[in-house]
Amino acid sequence: MTSCDLQVFDHDGYQVFWKRRRGREKLMAEIRRAGIVHSEPVLEAIERVERRHFVRPDDEREAYDNAPLSIGRGQTISQPLVVALMSEALAIGSGDRVLEIGTGSGYQAAVLAEMGARVFSVEIIPQLSAWAATNLRNAGYRGIELDTADGYLGWEEHAPYDAIIVTAAASRIPRPLIPQLRVGGRLVVPVGSNAWDQTLWVVERTEEGETSTNLGPVRFVPLTGDGQQAPS
Predict the structure, then answer these.
(1) How many domains in the chain?
(2) CATH number where 129 lies
(3) 4 in a structural domain
(4) How does strand 210-218 pair with strand 181-191?
């Protein structure tokens, strides 16, 4: 599932096309130069997704900057390098079932779809969920299933998943998500109570329980909803 640049160009259209192309080439050069993402399928997926479809119109000039951008309602579209890092940490293959918690504008879901995943995505803010659906449709992604709900609780209806990704910082590992993973599946989640004390974790479900790996410091907006207020 890929979207296309303009099919017929006038003079201005060519300028827009090449500006976007140069922006994407610059972005990919920066991501590769960082040297922390090594999966070619992930890098190719990032390159194929047109990020301009997933930012606000006023921010389209910055769509291919390697930086987070506000998408309104206190939320952001993540930095492409971080999207690549988290996507690689999922260790998924084509056809795998992936649950995303925090649809946002739809960008991460599009990257997962480009990697060949079957994507299920939950967003707690109705306006963002509706906007993401429009963005994904306009970008040519038709097979992603969306829901508006408290993502801390997951989406049990479609479990088990090969991987789960959380795109906002939880105050602790979301325990309701672990049983929704298949054995051998991975949860990738930023954890921390404030923006200055967050780390990215990979939790793998095993026959005996689970293992956890810390991938280092990150900074995300907080995960919202009543689910994480319940006792562990």
Answers:
(1) 1
(2) 3.40.50.150
(3) no
(4) unpaired
Catalytic status, residue 171: no
Please count the other Cβ atoms lying within 10 Å of the Cβ belonging to residue 191. 22
Position 17, amino acid? F
pLDDT tens-place string over residues 172-202: 999 999 999 999 999 999 999 887 899 999 9
Domain for residue 128, yes or no?
yes
pTM of the model: 0.90
Cβ contact 223:194 at 8 Å: no
**How many whole angstroms separate alpha carbon 117 and alpha carbon 31?**
22
Selecting among 3, 78, 171, 193, the annotated active-site residue is: 78
Structural domain boundaries, residue 126: 11-224
Any domain includes 160: yes
> At CB < 8 A and 24+ separation, what contacts does 148-151 make?
148/122, 148/123, 148/124, 149/122, 149/124, 150/122, 150/124, 150/225, 150/226, 150/227, 151/101, 151/102, 151/122, 151/123, 151/124, 151/223, 151/225, 151/227
Encoding tokens for residue 125? Answer: 């803010």
Q: Higher-confidence residue: 131 or 229?
A: 131
The three-state secondary structure class of 37 is coil
In a domain, 231, yes or no: no
pLDDT in tens, 3-21: 333 344 444 544 555 567 7
Phi, psi for 134 (deg, rounded to 5): -65, -45
